[in-house]
Amino acid sequence: MNAKDLLVQSFKAALSAADAAEIVPPHLPSPPKGRTLVVGAGKGAAAMARAVEDHWPEDKELGGVVITRYQHAVETKRIEVIEAGHPVPDEAGEKAARRILEEASDLGPDDLLLCLMSGGGSALMTLPAPGLSPDDLKATNRSLLRCGAVIQEMNVVRKHLSASQGGRLAAATKAPVVTLIISDVTGDDPTHIGSGPCAPDPSTYDDALAIIARYEVEVPEAVRDHLEKGRAGQIDETPKPGDSIFAQVENKVIATSQQVLLAAEGFFREHGITVAILGDSVTGEAREAAKVYGGLVRQVRANGNPWAPPVALLSGGETTVTVRGEGRGGRNAEFLLSLAIDLEGAEEVYALACDTDGIDGSEDNAGALVAPDTLARAETKGLRALHFLEKNDAYGFFQALDDLVMTGPTLTNVNDYRVILVR
Fold this sequence. Notes:
Elements: H1 3-16, H2 20-23, E1 36-41, H3 45-55, E2 62-69, E3 80-84, H4 91-105, E4 112-117, H5 121-124, H6 134-146, H7 151-159, H8 168-171, E5 177-182, H9 205-214, H10 221-231, E6 249-255, H11 257-270, E7 274-277, H12 286-303, E8 311-317, H13 331-343, E9 349-355, E10 367-370, H14 374-380, H15 385-390, H16 394-400, E11 404-405, E12 416-422
Parallel strand pairs: 1-2, 1-4, 2-3, 4-5, 5-6, 7-8
Antiparallel strand pairs: 8-12, 9-10, 9-12, 10-11
Helix pairs in contact: 1-11, 7-9, 9-10, 12-13, 13-16
């Protein structure tokens, strides 16, 4: 198997560790005396819903609605799947989120609210808080996506503009709540996954305003006024840890970036390659993180330590891109473009970086590939790698080289998967 194929196959092996059909059934709760309402949001929500249906007793009442991104739906029979906008929310998501909140409010103590959350849920289950409009939230989301904030910071702001997130969905029901979560954030804290509709929220309106100030986020006046009123105590805070509403709430993280990396580790070991897992929570600017990895690669090649080749350097997490150019980016493609520039065509070094949801940023690729001849092939086509990096146009660079990784929607999301193979 050539190096590029080996990397792509390792990505497929990693994804298998986050397959909803395999990971959801072992964590399903027992059916209640009354009915079970299934709700949720995320790129894996539809696949999770089908896994629930496939393993729920036929004689037990089951229904509900989950929201997923366009082109991420799967066929279901008892649970309705609604497609909506991501990463910028739209009317379909707002209507579905309102319906979820209303139906959850109708449940009683003998019923069960089963919530299915995965990456993307923050944008998909977007229900404006009173006094805010969908356009206010759209504009805020667009600004947050471009400012360079990490996902946890973005979600602090989102929770304080939402009527359903930041624990407010759990607060709206009288039924016991079980949330099954596929984590797409570093640290795997339920409060940050899908902006934690059923999880306690330790953050405050003051925190949200501090994030907006730190990253100079442009927000509508109504949004700033809402947050200022919240800081002044004129609007209720999100439910906090220790609140009695969480006495009957269980949040279970059932798939993580670490599990995915361990699956990839097993794949490489089967092929006789040493593996070093460098962390499942790598953050920071993608182009700067790449330089750190480039330095490590040079150490391995020159000195055979900390690991002697052949070695696969694995990492997960979620880097960020502060958008200054007008190109078609994606954090994984930008990571790889910066890495290729840093390595300057180093021999026997190959790399892949992909988003496990199959969508790198807002484009149609999961990520891309780098090989020793990447820069040389680019030069023959008249492509200046640094120029593409300055424009945040890593997508355009790798597209021209036919080195994009295209998977289509994977129906899961456990952050990014990166591997550098030093042969």
